Amino acid sequence: MATTATYTSPPAEKTWQDHLLLNEFYPPLTQDTVRRSPMRELISTVLSHRTTHADEELAYDRMLEAFGDWAGVLAAPTAELAHAIRTTRWPDTQAPRIQEILRRIWAERGGFTLDFLEEWPTERGMQWLNDMPGIGLKTASLVLLFNFRKPVLPVDTHVHRIAQRVGMIGPKASADKAHQVLLEQLPKDSLVLLNFHKHNYWHGQRVCLYAKPDCLKCPLKGFCNYYLEHYGPATEEALAATPKKWDPDWGALPH
Ligand code: SF4
């Protein structure tokens, strides 16, 4: 797909073209792909902070193996819980945090479930999750988008970096600001937001790397500010040589 955006396009136009091009470059997702239960999504996202996916999964499995279920995790001695999740970055901080989250859910809902969020308006659910210790906009958005198809946008470090480099947001806009600006620029359609989030997440992990972006491979080069600054305007040859789709031979896409 040819892009209609240019280096001087308004940020909202760049955001939409980013979505269209990456939706073609990477496999599009459907909303049937709920990857894990709401409780698991919430607690796993707490565990994942600055932690690899493999270490997060290991911590989650060890925690449930050691304590059986959420009631067991809540009742566990905090030091033992910290030991079980020791593959995460800050187990001594995360263990009491997880127990406080579980305590609040139990106290307010009478069970370890988040299913009530399905019925709640998006803003109310976002606020409720956000009030939990250690739950920021990103985690709250992940739970609401992935599990309840609410029209919100998780902005992780990859989405944030690409939005800055391309010029969808200002170069100094914070992740929380990016969350607000990108959401205003995109349709309030959870399928679009799901694909935008995942595709930019994959792109940040595989192409637009923090240390050394692989711009040759990138379909966004025709309107990306970073590309313009480092290489000048993309030539017709450079655009023609850009792959149209992710090649599985380059490696597996992240989870
Ligand atoms: S052109 Fe380069 S800097 Fe811009 S989004 Fe693509 S990989 Fe990232």
TrEMBL record:
Gene Ontology biological-process annotations: base-excision repair
Protein name: Endonuclease-3
SUPFAM superfamilies found in the cross-reference section: DNA-glycosylase
Matching Gene3D superfamilies: Helix-hairpin-Helix base-excision DNA repair enzymes (C-terminal), Hypothetical protein, domain 2
GO molecular function terms listed in the Swiss-Prot or TrEMBL record: endonuclease activity
Residues in HhH-GPD domain copies: 47-206
Keywords associated with the record: Endonuclease, Hydrolase, Nuclease
SMART domains attached to this UniProt entry: ENDO3c
Pfam families referenced in this protein's UniProt entry, alphabetically: HhH-GPD
